[in-house]
Write a structure and sequence with these properties.
The chain is mostly helical and 294 residues long. It contains 14 helices and three strands. The structure holds zinc ion. Residues 1-25 are annotated as: Disordered.
């Protein structure tokens, strides 16, 4: 049975327990002190105890490293992101920003004034969230010490039009719910408030609620938690419609992992297609042409 642990967008996320596959332990050992090792993975191989070469997270990190090493070797220009009301400065290679984010591709290579000055103002964003994004750009990982909730990182990735980052945040969510966290009203409300109909985050949250019933007796909610759900349901909106049409808030499907949103065979439902300009465009310094839908 699941243990009731809490995550919410506004509070630090507890680092998931590292299940200790050999590769993760090597990474953790190599980077001890830097504290940038990734959360552990729940792909097919890792769940079956194989991990290593066939682990999907390892493959993603390897591919990411290979792409960015090509970019960093050829494109030295740096952009300065000026983030939040305190105007924290975070620097990053311009081409890396553009290659992994449609938003930054437009700003850095779309002929805007910021293309020239190298300064990009992001006053409405949180420095911690942007730092997590930039850290992912360089490492392909979201640090398990990141204090921003993965649902908030998913929303940031969506805003920056970076499907690679939203997918990494989604893998973090798979891990959190796999390890036995019950969804909170705060996370559900935040996810619905900050996404539109048809988003992968909404789909995931809806399926977690339908399969794991936050109001079922198994979750052993305290009165404050119940009150939070009551307040959220009282607001109505898309969340209530989505859940009401397909089931209820108090189903609990035990012993049927395959139906769970975090089960590895279901991951594909919640991941975005990766779209970017070809890496050669960036390596050859080609400007961006128009806007594409992703
Ligand atoms: Zn894996």
């Amino acid at each position: 049975m699941k243990q009731s642990t809490k995550t919410s967008p506004s509070k630090p996320v507890e680092a998931p327990t590292n299940r200790g596959t050999s590769n993760e332990m090597e990474i953790a050992k190599a980077e001890k002190g830097l504290k940038v090792y990734s959360y552990s993975c729940v792909c097919d191989s890792c769940v079956c105890g194989e991990s290593g070469e066939s682990c999907e997270q390892n493959t993603r990190i390897r591919d990411h490293a290979s792409e960015i090493s090509r970019i960093l070797a050829k494109c030295p220009d740096i952009a300065t992101l000026i983030v939040g009301p305190c105007q924290s400065k975070i620097t990053c290679h311009k081409t890396l920003l553009g290659f992994k984010s449609e938003y930054f591709d437009g700003l850095c290579f779309g002929g805007f004034p910021s293309s020239e000055s190298g300064e990009i103002r992001m006053e409405e964003e949180q420095p911690e969230a942007i730092a997590a994004f930039v850290s992912w750009l360089y490492t392909g990982r979201i640090s398990s010490t990141c204090t921003v909730a993965p649902a908030a990182l998913w929303v940031l990735g969506d805003k920056l039009r970076s499907p690679g980052f939203t997918n990494e945040a989604m893998h973090f969510l798979f891990r959190i719910y796999y390890q036995g966290t019950f969804i909170t009203a705060e996370t559900a409300g935040f996810s619905y408030d900050n996404t539109t109909s048809g988003s992968k985050l909404r789909l995931f949250i809806k399926d977690v609620i339908l399969n794991e019933g936050p109001l079922s007796k198994e979750t052993e909610l305290c009165s404050d938690d119940i009150e939070s759900w009551r307040a959220l349901i009282r607001q109505g909106g898309d969340l209530l419609v989505d859940i009401s049409f397909e089931g209820s808030f108090n189903n609990f499907i035990c012993d049927d992992d395959q139906r769970m949103a975090w089960y590895y065979q279901n991951h594909h439902k919640y991941l975005e297609p990766i779209t970017t300009r070809p890496i050669e465009d960036f390596l050859q310094g080609k400007p961006r042409e128009g806007t594409r839908n992703i």
